[in-house]
Amino acid sequence: AEFGKQWYQRRVRGDTAEPQPVKLSPKTTTDSDIEKLINEKLYKIPPKEVAPSEDPVDATPLGETPVEPTLPAYTDEELVTVKEEVLSLKELGNSMFRTGHHYGAMAEYSKAIELCRKQLDETRSILHANRAACHVGCEEFKEAEEDCTTAINLNPQYLKAILRRAQVREKLDSLTPALDDYKRVLELDRRNGPSLEAIRRLPPLIEAQQEKMKQECMEKLQDLGNLVLKPFGLSTNNFKMVQNPETGGYNIQFQQNQ
Question: Which of 23, 93, 127, 154 could make an SS bond with 108 (beta carbons 3.0 to 4.6 A apart)?
C-alpha cells in the first residue's frame, strides 16, 4: 500500500521529494528481501515529467481550461496491444481495490490512464471513476471529485460517476452541486434509490446552509461598518433596517444612542 501511495504521488501528482523508505514488519525471513526490492523500485520511479517551456508562466486566459496536447492515434496493431495492457492493469487495480489496497489500485489505474488515448476514451472514463473510488477509500474527497468530473467529461451519460461525484460533493459540503448531480442521475435512472432519497433530504439542508452563510456575511459587514463608523462615535447599532410592508423593500433609519 505504501509503495502504491508513493508511486501515485511521484508519477501523477508530480511530487519530486525523495522517496521515503518502506518498512515492513519482520513477519517472515523474506521480508527484508521484499523491503529491499520495493525501495529499489521506488528510487527508480521518475517524477511526473513537466514539458519544458520558454515561458514558465501559464498563459492560459483566466477562466479557461488549459488544452492538453493531442497524442497521435494508435495504429490498429498498437491499439490491440495497448488494449490488452490497459485491461490487465485495470483488472489488477480492481483486485487490489477489492482487498482494500487503495493506493496500490490507484497506481495501477494511473498506469492504465497514461496509456489511453482518444480511441480509449470510454475505458479512460471508467479508469478515472475507479480511481475516484480509491480516493474516497482514502478520504481524499477533492481528488475524488476531480476524477469523477474527468470521467463525466469523457462520458456525460456515465451514471455511476455522476452518482459518485454527488456523494463526494456531499462529503465536501458542496450541497447545491451535489443536488444538481442527484437530479442528473434521476434523469438517467428515475428509480435510483440514493438520488430519490437525496432530493428529499438536501433542500432543507441547503436552505439552512445558505441562511448560515447569509448570517456570517452580515456579521462581517457589521464588523466592517463598525470599523468605519467608530471614528465618528457611531456604530451600526445607530442604523435600523425597517421593512416596507407594501413593497417588501427596506429603509434605513438613523437613531441616536440612548
Answer: 93
Rounded Cα distance between 120 and 135, Å, is 22
User: How far apart (Å, rounded) are the C-alpha atoms in residues 65 and 50?
Assistant: 17
Query: Are the beta carbons of 4 and 106 closer than 8 angstroms?
Result: yes
Look at 34-38, 179-183, 203-207 and tell me which has the smallest mean pLDDT.
Answer: 34-38
Task: Kindly report the number of other CB atoms within 10 A of residue 69's CB atom.
Answer: 5
| Alpha carbons 75 and 25: distance in angstroms, whole number | 47
Whether 55 has a pLDDT exceeding 70, the answer reads no
Write out the E strands in 27-183: none
Taken as a whole, the chain contains a residue count of 258
Instruction: Give the chain's mean pLDDT.
Output: 79
List of residues 6+ apart from 129 with CB closer than 8 A? 147, 148, 151, 158, 160, 161, 164
Calculate Rg over the CA atoms of the chain: 26
Contact 165, 153 (CB under 8 A): no
How far is it, in rounded angstroms, from Cα 59 to Cα 256? 55
What would the pLDDT profile of 214-225 be if each residue is shown by its tens digit?
777 777 777 777
Distance CA(53)–CA(158), nearest Å, equals 36
Residue whose C-alpha is closest to residue 185's, from 171, 197, 173? 197
Q: Report the helix count and the strand count for the chain, using DSSP H and E.
A: 9, 2
The SS3 call for residue 253 is: strand
**CA–CA separation, 233 and 252 (whole Å):** 18
Q: What is the pTM assigned to this prediction?
A: 0.66
Residue corresponding to grid cell 492515434: 73
